[in-house]
Amino acid sequence: MTMDDTIPLSRGFIGDMANLDSSTVLARHPTFTAQVLQIKELSSAQAGGPRRFRFVLSDGDHFVQCMLATQLNDIVLNNRVERGHTIKVRQYTPSEMKEKLVVILLDFEVLTQYGVRDKIGSPTSIDPKVNRQGPQPAQATYSNGSTGSTTFYGEQKPQVAPKVESTYSAAPSYGSAAPRPHNYYTIEGLSPYQNKWTIKARVTFKSEIKHWHNQRGEGKLFAVNLLDETGEIKATAFNDQVDQYYDLLQEGEVYYISKCRVNTAKKQFSNLQHDYELTFERDTEIEKCLDAGATEVPQLRFNFVENLGKLTDVQKDTIVDVMGVIKTVGDCAQITSKSSGRPYDKRDIVLVDSSGVSVQLTVWGTQAVQFSANQDDIVAVKGAKVSEFNGRSLSLLQSSTLTVNPDISEAHSLKGWFDTNGRNTTFSSLQSVGSSSMSGRPENVKTIKQIRDEQLGMQEQPDYFTVKGTVLFIRNETIAYAACPTEGCNKKLTDDGDGWRCEKCNKSFPEPVYRYILMFAIYDHSGQMWVSSFDDVGRVILGKPAGEYMRMRDEDNSAYLDEILKSTGKTYLFRVRAKAETYQNTTRPRYSAMSATPLNYAQESANLVKLIQSFDLA
């Protein structure tokens, strides 16, 4: 017995895959053990998409090409698997790509006890059509790191016959619980080179029906995102298929889908990474999955940025997944597009996380009107667009999804941090630092004298600028107002004797929620100016929720005044909106602080060094 004989390779597995249908292979080999002969990164991976890796696995008798599911990329990138390792594959999907046998690897473990070995046996390529006449010899050797010279399986290109597959051929029927085949194709493995396939996927997003009119006619469409354990793909229905499938497909439900056209993905209309997308056709078959197998399909898949603070390192217009705690929910407002004149509903939400920064997320359309998440909820956003409007911010697209309090480990961790420390944290807004961080140059900060000399805020449209100022004085007579506790309302309450009443909500409450409405003076070396602000900036400057100050004022007014005084003398970068207002026939600019960011003294020092170096001292 040789040392290699002690390694339990699943001999015969690849031969079975070549000659048996997928359901029989999976039943006979729920797992298999193989040796890694090759690991190679595919050069055809689409720019901006996930990296893709090809494996060549051997069962000792034959070798086969494999594609690694992208969620396993870290195993390769961290060098936890190498050529010569033995692996136990715990989950996989047999498939065909471009008339070649392919295994999609979904989960495996490296059997490190066997170490890295030379090639075991003399594995050969296999052709399902001619295998009975004997396997074809491989043309490559293990030592040079290749299993083929002209083609993957060797010099002779195999003539692969189609495999026998169990496909569902009955007419699509909503609510049917008929048994289904188990040899589903993976979404990651879909391409135009397969004709017979069935996927089992969850609808993670469904768009509204869109209508178009142009020179070629008119029509309608809607799109869905489909997810399984290997990836996510977009599918679109046009015209008659809209009527056929729109009510059938519902977000969150799992379906068996087959007989769609597979096209190259139009990346400008999708936020998914798949190289292809699906189009529903007249013969497309869709059936809702009502059996227990529906729970095996993941609910959502995210690729979160590390934290909100890292958004300053992300290029403008990049599509990202983010997660944060809702700090504030703005009112739903309506704006009119300058180009089309059409009205749009929007709602601004402020998200925070453990990075200590806050970022504004704008929700549009129906999502803005129907938005029902509450302050302190966790939201996971898939497919938000990074914007530099008024600093760094996020915007939801029509294809974006927003999930409230998702049942995932990242959300539980963030919730634990917020409940323990986050509620009392002072956050810096990315709206004031986004653009400067992206460019690598210090932002063009205005002095107070420049603001007045340039008459910022005196034009028809408001002006936005950043000013570095020190808080000189805070008016302490009125620093907050009694606000409606209904999430997203924030309207001022009136004390009717029996409670606090909100006219907008038509409700009464035993206690209000106090929100800041500050008026304070700031100064720099060139002058002084008065600035107003609301709750977000008030929390930064005064360091506590407004309710704490109101209770302090009622209990000990001297302590209240002393505490406010402690907040003066501190310097911030203020993002300011200047807008002309007329009072008693006098027009003057009103300055409103949209954000306040404590100074980063290391960055300020670097900026001063650059400023000094820019002077000609010769």
UniProtKB/TrEMBL annotation:
OB domain: residues covered: 197-278
Family as reported in the entry's similarity comment: Belongs to the replication factor A protein 1 family.
Gene Ontology MF terms: single-stranded DNA binding; zinc ion binding
Subunit structure: Component of the heterotrimeric canonical replication protein A complex (RPA).
Polar residues compositional bias, start-end: 133-147
Organism in which the protein naturally occurs: Lipomyces tetrasporus
Alphabetic keyword roster: DNA replication, DNA-binding, Metal-binding, Nucleus, Zinc, Zinc-finger
Protein name (Swiss-Prot/TrEMBL): Replication protein A subunit
Gene Ontology cellular component terms for the protein in this record: chromosome, telomeric region; DNA replication factor A complex
CDD domains: RPA1_DBD_A, RPA1_DBD_B, RPA1_DBD_C, RPA1N
InterPro entries the UniProt entry points to: Euk_RPA1_DBD_C, NA-bd_OB-fold, NA-bd_OB_tRNA, Rep_factor-A_C, Rep_factor-A_N, REPA_OB_2, Rfa1
Compartments it resides in: Nucleus
GO biological process annotation, one example: DNA repair
Role noted for this protein: As part of the replication protein A (RPA/RP-A), a single-stranded DNA-binding heterotrimeric complex, may play an essential role in DNA replication, recombination and repair. Binds and stabilizes single-stranded DNA intermediates, preventing complementary DNA reannealing and recruiting different proteins involved in DNA metabolism.
Residue span(s) of domain Replication factor A C-terminal: 464-608
